[in-house]
Amino acid sequence: MEKRVMTDSKRRKGLMAASAVLGGVLAISACSSDGDKGGSAESSKKSQAQVDEAAAKDASKARITISPKNGASNIGINNDAKVTVSDGTLTQVAMTTVAGESVKGTLAADGKSWKPDGQLERSTTYKIAATAKDSKGLEAHENSSFTTVSPANSFIGNFTPEDGSTVGVGMPVSINFNKAITDKKAVQSGIAVTSSSGQEIVGHWFNGQRLDFRPDQYWQEGSTVTLKLNLDGVQGAQGVFGVQQKTVTFKIGRNQVSTVDASSKTMTVTQDGKTIKTIPISAGAPDNPTYNGQMVISEKFKETRMDGSTVGFKKKDGKGEYDIKDVPHAMRLSTSGTFIHGNYWGADSIFGSANTSHGCVGLNDVKGAGDANQPAAWLFNNTIVGDVVIVKNSQDRTVQPDNGLNGWNLNWTQWKAGSAV
C-alpha cells in the first residue's frame, strides 16, 4: 500500500512537472506568437508597399478622359460626347445605349480622340467603355454613363427658308422655337446669319418664341445667305437646353417687287427695278379692305380651299361667308389669311375697276388653274417664295410686322431695337 502511494505520488509530481513544462512552452509560444504578429504586420506593410510600388511601375501612363462625366444628365445630343487620351493612344471605344444598341463613332487618325458619328437620341442613357495603351503597351481602361436631354428639357427652332432653296429678296430668316425663350441673349448669340453681299444682318424678337433676321434693305440679288445654329447645350430657359447644330445656306434670286395700288386697282411688277408687267386687280371691298404695307410671299398653292369661317368671316349659322374649294394660283401674304390669288368667279369687268374681295388681292383666272395665259397664272409662274408684294392706297391699316414674314414694315431703328445682342 505504501509503495503504491509513493508510486502515485511520484506520478502526480511527474504530471505536475510535465504540466509546468508544457505551460511554459505554451506561454513561451503565446509570447512568441505576439511577437510574430508585430513582425508580420510590419512585414505586411512592407509587402503591400512593395506591391503598390510594383503595380505603379506596371500601370499604364495613358490617361483617358470621357465626356460627359459619369452620371451626368441633360447632356446635349451633338457635341458633348467624346473620349480623349493623353500619354497614349486609344485602342477601343464602345458606346452603347442601356438597351445594348451600339453607337457608331470615329477614332481620330492619331488615336488621341473618339466621337460619335451622328446626333444622339434625346432622353437616352448611354454607356462608354474606352481602352488605351501607352508607349510600353500597357493598357488603361475607363467607363462612363450619362443621359441626354429630354424633349421636356430641350428646345428646337423651326426655321425658314429651307436649306438649298432660292428665294426672293424679301425673305427673312424666321425661326420659331417650340418653347418660350427667356434667355434671348444666350440663344441669339448661338445663331449667326451672314451674307456673301456683306450686308449687316440683325435679329429681332417678336415674342419669346419667334426670332427673325434681315438686313436694312432687301437682300442683294444673287447673294448667298448662311444660317448657323450653334444651340446644342445652350440654356434658353430654366432647365431647358438647345439641341441643334446645323448650317443652312440659301440663295437670293432676282429682285422682284410687285406693287398693288388699291386705289387705281392695278399691280405693277418690277424686276431689278424695271417694270416687266402691269396687271389689273381687284382688292378688298370697302367693308373689308386689304392691308397696306410690305408683304412677303410665304407659300404658293396651285389650287387651295378658302373658307371664310377660318379667318373670321362667319354667317349666323357658323358657316363661312364664302367657301371656295378650288381657288387657283394662291400665294400667301399674311398668317391671318391675306392672299394674292386667281379669281374665276368674278366677272372679267371687275379687274381694274372694282374692289370686291374680303381683303385678298384677286387677279383674273379660270377654274382649274389650267390657262397659262391668265394674269394670275403668269404671276404665279413668275413668282418665288420670298418675293415682295407692296400694297398702297388701301383704306385699311398697315399689316402688323409679325403677321406673316412682314418685318419690313419696321424701320431699321425699330428692327434693331428688338435684338437681344
TrEMBL record:
InterPro entries: Big_10, LD-transpeptidase, LD_TPept_cat_dom, Transpep_catalytic_dom. Pathway: Cell wall biogenesis; peptidoglycan biosynthesis. Coiled coil: none annotated. Residues 32-62 are annotated as: Disordered. The active site is at H341, C360. The keyword Transcription regulation does not apply. Residues 34-45 have a biased composition (Basic and acidic residues). PANTHER family: L,D-TRANSPEPTIDASE (PTHR30582), L,D-TRANSPEPTIDASE YCIB-RELATED (PTHR30582:SF2). This is Ig-like domain-containing protein. It comes from Streptomyces maoxianensis. The lineage of its organism: Bacteria, Bacillati, Actinomycetota, Actinomycetes, Kitasatosporales.
